[in-house]
Amino acid sequence: MFIKKCFLIGTSALVPIAPIERPLDAQTSPESERIEKLERAVEQLQKRNAELEAEVKSIKKMSSFAPELSGEGKTKTKIYYDGKTYVEKNVLAEEKPPIYVVPGGPELKLTLGGFIQANFEGGDVSAFEGRFGLTALKDRIRLRRARINLTGEFAEQFDFKIEGDFENSDGISSNRTAFSATDIFINWHQFPEAQIKVGQWKAPFGLEQTASDSTKLFTIERSLPTGAITPERQIGVQLWGKPFTHLWPEKTDLLTYYAGVFNGNGRNTTINDNNNFMTVGRLELLPYKGKIFGQDASLKLGGDILNSRDDKGTNISQTLNLLVNRDGSLSPFVLPGADERTAWSVDAWLTLGPFDLIGEYFEEDVDGRTVAGVAPGFADFEPSGWYIEGIYFLVPKKLQAVVKWEALNPGQVGNDGIHSITSGLNYYIRGDSIKLMANYIHTWSDYRATHPQFGDDQFDEVLLRLQLMF
Fold first, then answer.
1. Which listed site, 122, 138, 185, 257, has its alpha carbon 20 to 30 Å from 251?
2. Would the pTM count as exceeding 0.85?
């Protein structure tokens, strides 16, 4: 740069001088005029040289503050104390290699996610689930769910999901937790009308049961009839799809069907309880989606059917057995003998602007089977239940109010119904990604009301939840 500047100075000096080197016979001006022109030219040359010198000094000054770069890497400034003063010095910075993750297979898309739900539960904890009397729980702070999942897609029209939950019993003690699988499945979606799904996930029975834990539930916990009668997660294979995807593209969601065959004895099990399978089917109909009074509106209808032949020792429900404690509370129903059960349900979901109205009804018939001359060991019974809830945004997309009324009739003794009313608020700090929920639940037991010797028949609970999705 400095050499280039000197070259410019030299050439600039020659240019003004050139006009004064001409033959004597061409001179037509007096001597004084020639001297005046020469002085002006010298003055311009001096001015230009001064400007160039100032520019060179500026460049040198800037370069004196530049870090001393090395071919070995980047530098950073460190401050040293030499006993008298502090000195800044540029030293070679240690470079760390970047951390990155790449898929091991040919996936087109990989997504890592999950969510955490932390609860405060006070009062008559889980009384709405039949946990009172001998099965009553104490006030607690609880990690309700702590899940991590990985989803992916392939060019060959396959997608998959692997999800696990850190909040599960470890099989040693019900008071301890360990990591356990929730959803693990592969889905072939080349034909939207007929997709095939294999693995473990929620059997397609019940609107509330199959709704997402983090985005589609408006109360902190699901209703008691949902938990008592629906089959939850199972291992199996399923055919499902939207038949109008290509035939009637603008009505793709008009009809969705699900038909699955499952082991029928719960999740994370390596064996089936017998050579029979649970069959489950669900239909969803969206007869209307549009505008009413200028607001988004829709009506969704659903229906389910289930049949299963279970052997002795199979747990058919976590909250259905009224006969174990004999005080009106509920326990898991582990079959004392073989059975055949058939269940069905219907549901409806109406949306009108900021308002939603959801309802569902369940019914099940549990009949004992005699196997190899061994009686079932229990009487046939027919549990049933329902819930209805209304949801309204008090502040659009921020503050939401909810009221739910629900009931379960275990159907094992006379007058054994359990009813609850839930009122709550949901505050969406950042949509469902960061959400606060608060519920107050009042529960009463018909059985305990008619048997006062067992104690209280009215129960109250407060539930609070913080949810974070990532």
1. 185
2. no
Q: What is the dotted CATH code of the domain comprising 113-469?
A: 2.40.160.10
Cβ proximity of 122 and 462 under 8 Å: yes
- Cβ–Cβ < 8 Å for 447, 466: no
153's tokens: 């897609």
Q: Does residue 64 carry a pLDDT above 90? A: no
Higher-pLDDT residue of 431, 5: 431
The model's confidence at residue 176, banded by pLDDT at 50, 70 and 90, is: confident
331-334 and 195-202 beta bridge pairing: unpaired
Q: Which residue has the tokens 């294979």?
A: 237
Confidence of residue 91 (pLDDT cuts 50, 70, 90): low
